[in-house]
Structure to design on (245 residues):
């Protein structure tokens, strides 16, 4: 298996000369992180203002009604569910397009069409079912404490890409949706720490993104996402391209 440095080098090589297309492909995630950066900037500004007011007024007490707090929390929970589902569909579309790009080295694709490819008739049902199954299993494992849920999240992390590979040329295979999760778990056996450390190696880049109030994420997100797909491509190879179960 390739080292972290080799996976990152593969991602950079693919992106070289194609940053514009990669940024467009990942634009939704980039905008989300830009928003986080703006909020981060706003929180810092609010904190400075509150500190100034506290010093000026000898201590400021801000009260928010319980009803307002509960209403906002309820709306936030509903928004998180819908936002998480939409985000999953977009992430899957980006991953599918990036995997094709890594394998063919052909940048002749539509970033917008690629980004929303999981919403197509071919992938919509499978993406929805696999998302729900993974969410349920991860939640149930999380009930045993947080760590088991996180570990299972890594175990299931390759499910969508395995589904794409298996069904690319063998739509009449004998697998059901649970089988793809099982295949991901088997593929990641002994490699969960590899993925964790690979993700952890980007922490400096993400800190840079927040320090620049989200601006650096324009380049960081495509680099990160491409590296994660390169990890799958290297780990799985051609194992699932002709897999029939």
């Amino acid at each position: 298996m390739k080292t972290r440095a080799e996976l990152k080098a593969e991602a950079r090589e693919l992106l070289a000369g194609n940053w514009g297309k990669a940024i467009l492909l990942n634009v939704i995630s980039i905008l989300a992180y830009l928003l986080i950066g703006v909020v981060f900037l706003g929180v810092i500004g609010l904190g400075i203002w509150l500190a100034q007011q506290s010093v000026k007024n000898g201590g400021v007490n801000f009260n928010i009604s319980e009803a307002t707090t509960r209403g906002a929390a309820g709306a936030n929970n509903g928004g998180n569910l819908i936002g998480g589902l939409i985000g999953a569909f977009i992430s899957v579309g980006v991953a599918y397009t990036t995997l094709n790009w890594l394998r063919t080295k052909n940048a002749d694709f539509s970033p917008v069409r690629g980004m929303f490819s999981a919403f197509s008739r071919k992938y919509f049902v499978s993406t929805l079912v696999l998302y729900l199954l993974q969410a349920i299993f991860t939640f149930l494992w999380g009930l045993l404490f947080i760590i088991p849920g996180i570990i299972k999240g890594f175990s299931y992390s390759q499910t969508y890409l395995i589904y794409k590979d298996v069904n690319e040329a063998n739509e009449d295979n004998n697998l059901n949706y649970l089988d793809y999760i099982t295949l991901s778990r088997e593929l990641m056996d002994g490699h969960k720490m590899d993925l964790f450390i690979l993700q952890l190696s980007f922490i400096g880049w993400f800190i840079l993104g927040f320090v620049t109030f989200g601006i650096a994420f324009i380049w960081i997100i495509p680099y990160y996402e491409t590296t994660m797909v390169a990890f799958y491509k290297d780990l799985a190879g051609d194992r699932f391209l002709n897999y029939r179960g």
The two ends are 24 Å apart (CA to CA). Residues 59-75 have pLDDT under 50 and may be disordered.
